[in-house]
Amino acid sequence: MDESTRAPDDPPVTTPEGSDAPTPPADDAVTPEAEVSAEVDAASALLRDAVDQEAATVEAPAATTVIDVAGDPTADDRVAEPAEPVDDDVVLAAVAAAPVHRDPWWSRLLDRPLDLISFGVALAAAVFVFVQLRPGLLLADTTPSGGDMGAHVWGPAFLRDELLSQGRITGWTPDWYAGFPAYQFYMVVPSLAIVLLNAGLTPWIGVPIGFTIVGAAIELARRVGRHGGWIITLGVLVGLGLIGLPYGIAFKLVSVSGLVMFPIAAWFMARLAGSPDPVPAFVSLGATIFLFDTNFTIYGGNIASTLAGEFAFSVSLCLALLAVGLVAKGLDDDRYRAPAAVVIALVALCHVIPLFFVVPVLILLVVQHHSVPRGWLLGLSVTVALAAVAPAESSGLGYRLLVLVPAVFVYVLILTANPESRRRAGWLLTVGPVAFALTAFWLLPFTLREPYLNDMGWERLTTIADSLLTDPMRVALPVAVVGAILAFGARERLGVVFATNAALFAGLIATLPEARLWNARLLPFFYLPVYLVAAVGVAFVVRAFATTLSERYDRPDPWTVMISMVVGLSVVIVGIAIPLRAAPGGGIDDEGRWTWLGIESKSRSFLPSWIAWNYSGYEEKNSYREYSDVVSTMGDVGLDNGCGRAMWEYDKDLDRYGTPMALMLLPHWTDGCIGSMEGLYFESSATTPFHFLNQSVLSAAPSRAQRDLPYRGFDIGLGVDQLETLGVRYYMALSDEAIRAARDEPRLTEVAESAPWIVFEVAEAAIVEGLTTEPVVTGGPDESTVGELATHWDTGWVSQAVVSFNERSAAMPLPAEDGPDEWQRAVNLADADAVELPPVTVSDIVTDTDKIAFTVDEPGVPVLVKASYFPNWSASGAEGPWRVGPNMMVVVPTDTEVEIRFGYSAVEYGSYALTALGLAALVGLGVLDRRRRTGGAEPAVVGAGADVAAGEASVAPVWADEVPAGAGPAEATWADEVPEVAMPPVEDEPESPGGP
Questions:
Q1: Terminal-to-terminal C-alpha distance of the chain
Q2: How do residues 914-927 score in pLDDT, each as one tens digit?
Q3: Whether residue 563 has pLDDT greater than 50
Q4: Which of 84, 314, 716, 894 is most buried when burial is the number of CB atoms within 10 A of its CB?
Q5: CB-facing half-sphere around the CA of 370: CA atoms within 13 A
Q6: Other beta carbons less than 10 A from residue 30's beta carbon
């Protein structure tokens, strides 16, 4: 090679003979033929830095055979493959000697139109979703209503006003269920996002300043280069923090954020996973169809479930797709550990249930690459599916674990026999623990405090076939089967892992026994993979058709691919818009059919009416004046008679206010003065079942939402007994029956009226009072004594608490879960003797959000504190507290001044310490990622799901990703380890003989 052809920055390479060309290797340096692909990997690794800047090509020396860097023999994309095997040093020398030149700027545009069209499809789908969600209503300054969403309004406001001001993100609230630990059992990140958008400067000032900060962050990132992504992220967060949107708008925007970003997240997932075009565009369209599926309305993920209140679920599921893409990219490139750990942690912190969906996908991705034979991957998928359909109901958990053995065996066998799989498993094993540590501050207390979670007793879904084979699934499922076959044949790993996941969750839905995890909540994890795999199947059919029209047999025609994506977008949008009746220019004929451009349809989606109902807000409802009046009345009652808890009579017609749960917002509207006994977070308080027992006897038409409880009919006397035990100060009657009975009850005093509501004050509703009989420590009967058909409420301590609450009398002792040694012990409360206590006077009661203080005149006498029990309560000036029915607290004063405070426990301190370690480990992952990116000893993995269009896996300009996801330059031998070729250290260039 002539010296003049060498690039200016390349140092000369000389052989022992003094020439610039490399010499053939010695005989003992000859490598096996199977290692040629690894040597090509090494050559590609040396080119990585140049390719990261812009696409580059390598001129092959004369008299060589050519092979594409990505593994496809072509006429254009060449690197030198010696006529005979050579050793590593010779290959490295040849690459170092080869001149590198840059393609003309106009030729580099060839790989841009397809990318832009592909992303444009995802962006258009996201815009379509946003438009259907009625931007005008989203940006109206109203309070969102509808289903659970109308009650979710309380949470972020309490977080903003009470918890964050104390430097906490979890803590106690007295607002619902006689108190419960706020955000202990409910995800906090979406609420933090609402607070972030709500806090800040007025938009007229905050928006320009925010945009200025974001722009400055982008410019700084461009100049600095290093850590640019983190700089931009920080700039965006600071910019958003300066824009103070009205609370209702901030809430609504966060509630739809997961839906709007869902198609874009799906596109990024496929792109990061290296899926060839048009797969990313079609996957985003499949995700869009999933959003508009109306065959489920509460299980989570789609628009209907989000409107019903599951917006945290849709945010989490959106992040789950992004996590899958990041992990796929990180496994391929041996990088991106830190961002992957952060996104996986956010999935759990936004909603824990989608974590069950994403974890199997991540585990399967470890072995989804080119060097694992298809037979082993097929065996793994089949054994996973068979394990899921194990008849666990009849055979128990042990049998399910037993049938998992084949799947685990195949997985371990792949890891054992395949070095690349072991490397990828090591990558995931460094990311997973860090992700868990980042969530520990919330997830660990959630797990360790599980005994204080309330189980609503949701009944297991039994109509499995009807639930799995909905009308949309009858269309999508056959297409998904074809998609799975095509994905398996083409090694398109997203299609393979999601097909496996669909089979896994179909089996789990069918066989999961009655448990706290309701099997119906897993249905979205079957529907979504089916839509995604069907989209992959359509994309590969399009790709095959485009290849037949191509001038090159091995690459699809780019124009055909682009046109197919635009046509696919049009078909999906029109197909969704017709039942929504949202197509412009459409109309309704005399027979009630929607017509548009000759297309007729009688189908009509309920989504537009739900969207309008929720996002028009409480303020736009016809009954808003009635609702506003009763809320104002309760605020006045609190000012005149004192603050306290309110029990309001349930009626499903309260939906006229915006949701039947509208009065749960009493503490929200009255600044915490009037608490609501019923709240949204049913599982967050162990007092919840006792509330519903009380609701049943004080409502003419109760909801009885808690399953299996021994409910009683309307009984005003028993109801007032229970109100006194729960420390409820006000009873709000609505029906004629309840109003008449309340007016006849001597312990109730009518204090206010706001038609149709009548408000009564309860006589004995002090938060703290002395007991007349000593509590009895009782464990209750076990299941063997009450029969196999016993419910949760028939056994254990809670059974005695329910009995006591449903038969409340002043002479009956309270059942205690534990207590001082001198208290009686009994299995059943009925078997215990009533031990009378001396009278005690309680005075000077002072309550705060997380504190109750009072004075007693007789220390040593047990005192009932009518606030929900939780282990974080601690007492000063008294022993205890101990848990007594109905989930209240008893203390034994040791002094006349007693204070009970809700604080931190060892569980919280340990969890926060673990998260701190996780943050430190995250920094370590970032440093490791940086070293990998800047040329530390890194195995070159060319084409293994890499983003070819971005110039990371191929040095030739391409229109579409020709390399199958997870494919390398050549099929590796199954059991042979592909040798790692480390990149040489970067050395200073030698100065020219004449100096600068």
A1: 25
A2: 999 999 999 999 88
A3: yes
A4: 314
A5: 24
A6: 13
Residue 711 exposed, middle or buried by CB count within 10 Å (0-12, 13-18, 19+):
middle
Pick from 761, 757, 700: nearest CA to 734:
757
CA angle 588, 594, 595 (to 5 degrees): 95
The owner of tokens 């007594």 is 884
- Residue 158 and residue 138: Cα distance in Å, rounded? 22
Structural tokens at position 340: 């992957």
Q: What pLDDT does residue 399 have?
A: 57
Helix (H) or strand (E) holding 731: strand 728-733
Rounded distance between C-alpha atoms, residue 834 and residue 814, angstroms = 10
pTM of this prediction? 0.81
Tracing tokens 């196999």 back to the chain, one arrives at 788
Two structure tokens written together for 316: 């989490």
Q: Which long-range contacts (CB under 8 A, 24 or more apart) does 133-136 make?
A: 133/256, 133/259, 133/260, 133/303, 133/611, 133/615, 134/611, 134/612, 134/615
CA separation for the pair 975, 981 (Å, rounded): 18
From residue 754, alpha-carbon distances to 635, 655, 734, 747 in Å are 12, 18, 10, 21
CA 38, CA 43: separation in Å to the nearest integer?
9
Strand runs labelled E in 16-170: 56-58, 65-67, 79-81, 100-102
Q: Is the dihedral of CA 882, 884, 889, 891 positive or negative?
A: negative
Residue spans of beta strands (DSSP E) within 385-526: none
Cα separation, 368 vs 483, in Å, equals 17
Average pLDDT, the chain: 82
Q: What are phi and psi of 770, to 5 degrees?
A: -75, 150
CB 170 within 8 A of CB 163: yes
The structure tokens listed for 397 are 């958990």
Give 625's contacts (C-beta < 8 A, 6+ positions apart).
none
| Helix and strand element counts for the chain (H, E) | 35, 25
Q: Distance from CA of residue 31 to its chain's centroid?
A: 49
pLDDT, tens only, 495-533: 999 999 999 899 888 887 777 778 888 999 999 999 999
Distance between CA atoms of residues 151 and 308, nearest Å = 11
Structure tokens of 865?
Answer: 């504190």
Beta bridge partners of 674: 644
Cis bond upstream, residue 278 (ω within 30): yes
Alpha-carbon gap, residue 876 to 320, rounded angstroms = 45
- Distance of alpha carbon 645 from alpha carbon 761, whole angstroms: 10
Distance CA 309, CA 289 (A): 20
Helix axes 311-333, 337-350, angle to 10 degrees: 160
Distance from C-alpha of 449 to C-alpha of 340, rounded to nearest angstrom: 28
Helices (H), 63-104: 88-97
CB 605 within 8 A of CB 582: no
Give me 495's structure tokens.
């299609």
The CA distance from 754 to 634, in Å, is: 9
As a whole number of angstroms, the distance between CA 953 and CA 329 comes to 12
| Closest residue by Cα to residue 885 from 782, 777, 791, 766 | 777
* Nearest to 697, CA basis, from 659, 742, 746: 742
Tokens at 569, concatenated: 């977008």
Q: Which residue has the tokens 């824990």?
A: 352
| Identity of the highest mean pLDDT range in 112-126, 428-442, 925-939 | 428-442
Query: How many Å apart are CA 292 and CA 285, to the nearest integer?
Result: 11
**Mean pLDDT, residues 228-233:** 73
Q: What distance in Å separates the CA atoms of residue 730 and residue 751, rounded to the nearest whole number?
A: 9
Can the peptide bond before residue 61 be classed as cis, meaning omega within 30 degrees of 0? no
Name 595's bridge partners: 587, 600
> CA nearest 601: which of 589, 610, 609?
589
Q: Pseudo-torsion of CA 810, 815, 818, 821, nearest 10°?
A: 60
